[in-house]
Amino acid sequence: MSLRAGENAIAGSGEMFLEKDEVFARADCNVYDFHTKRLHNALQAYPIIRIGPNWLSFGRSQAAKDIYGYTSKNVKAGPYDVMSEGGANLNNISEKSIHSARRRTVASSYAPKNIEVWEPKVAASILDLKAQVDRRCVNKTVFDGVHWFFLFSVEAVIKIMLSKDMYFLRNGTDHIYFTDETGKERAVRSIDRFHAVQRAASTVIWDTEHLAYWQKLTNTFSTKYADNWQAGKDANAALGSLVKERLQRHENGEELNDLFQPLVGNIKGEDAGVSFKDQVAEVEQAVGAGTDGPAGSITMTMYYLLRNRHTLVKLREELDAALITEDTVAPWEKVKSLPYLRACIDEALRLSPPVAANLIRRTPPGTSTVIDGEVIPPNTNVSISAYTAHRDPTVFEEPERYEPERWLAKGSDRLKEMLAVFIPFSAGTRGCIGRNISALMQMTCVATLVFWYEFELEEEGWEMEFEEWFNLWPLRLPMRARRREVV
Ligand code: HEM
């Protein structure tokens, strides 16, 4: 069957796939909604759905390889181009040669050989996280895991990116303190501001042609939007101040080994030729992704473990055999190859990918493209959400079940099929560059928590709720902790 954009499927009204009354509700950026899940449910009846005037969303996992894989000729376009106007970074650069050049510039700093540089930074944050959990062990005080796992992630990733310790965990807040351009002392909440601007941008960015108009309109008529647009400026100013401080340290002759260094210059002392605006944009991307990704994944791993106690018991057996009491923080060397730990995390990423949404790609001009057996015309926006790809029952048996064991069938054809459509980090040349950093953060953090504490949900059977804009955020994880007798 040959498809022209706009044919087949059911018409949505933009990426958000809104129903009429929701258009007004979301217009005030106020509604917690899991639109990818709603779209997924609709895809059970239609294999492809048109979710925008020129945008097709696919429902069968095989489409993932054709859309995002290494052999795909599809490109990033549309909203990514708009985003790059505020500063070009690895994620939003569409043009292939410019993207490859930027990726080459930073690639070595993201490489696994640097884990030994990142590990002490991550471990220090895990110790501070433990100190906070310890306080809550007294009287078994209920605490919100989401709050603390997000603080852990943002603090660790800022250290890895900029060699700067923000002490978010010790202070219990995500405030960045800085002096702005006008000399005013400011305190800006980082996670809060990153998230607020997503609430505004993700509703209007799809209409790239009229974006400026939507920004003006929403800014004028909605106080909520106005605050959320302001959040983008606040986050940019706060991270800009951290970048200036980092550049000053470089000027002062400090030799810092972090993700930022290649954006300044290489080991031969040659200038990297990256503008200040782009440097800030790169920091925004890495800090934003490095916060929401690991925090979402750690939260959801803990949530699924607590809801499926037999998996927690099994993971603890694996950790008890691998770790000793001297391991106040689980060392990477001891946990990196633990199969069940990895499987528990991957299974949480499968069911609740932190980037669940339809990541837009454009088919090449001049020639049609085949996606999941369908002939798609040139210049068509196409996507499949990780949420949907990961729930294909022909690949993942009983897809709604949290079953880490499914990842353990090493070398089997089934495992190969699963890995081919497992896309929490997207895939191909535009796949996540931060996977090694994520693995370090996720595995050492989850291993330490499960080894040292007994956890329970505040209420048995409690169910997670999400808020989704570009990224998928778990809302709360009310839990209690008790120190284990570790011998
Ligand atoms: C569990 C953790 C994470 C998940 C699930 C995740 C997911 C993703 C996804 C889905 C993309 C593709 C985005 C798109 O096509 O629009 C991406 C790209 C990217 N991520 Fe991650 N990410 C994670 C952690 C990190 C970390 C820790 C960093 C950096 C410290 C990072 C930095 C980036 C960058 C720079 C890109 C753009 C890559 C490019 O296009 O060349 N991510 N990530």
Automatic annotation (TrEMBL):
InterPro entries per the UniProt record, alphabetical: Cyt_P450, Cyt_P450_CS, Cyt_P450_E_grp-IV, Cyt_P450_sf, Cytochrome_P450_monoxygenase
Organism per entry: Zasmidium cellare ATCC 36951
Keyword Transcription in record: no
Family matches, as PROSITE patterns: CYTOCHROME_P450 (PS00086)
Positions with a binding annotation for heme: C432
Cofactor: heme
Pfam families: p450 (PF00067)
Gene3D superfamilies (alphabetical): Cytochrome P450
Protein name per the record: Cytochrome P450
Keyword annotations: Heme, Iron, Metal-binding, Monooxygenase, Oxidoreductase
Molecular functions per Gene Ontology: heme binding; iron ion binding; monooxygenase activity; oxidoreductase activity, acting on paired donors, with incorporation or reduction of molecular oxygen
Family: Belongs to the cytochrome P450 family.
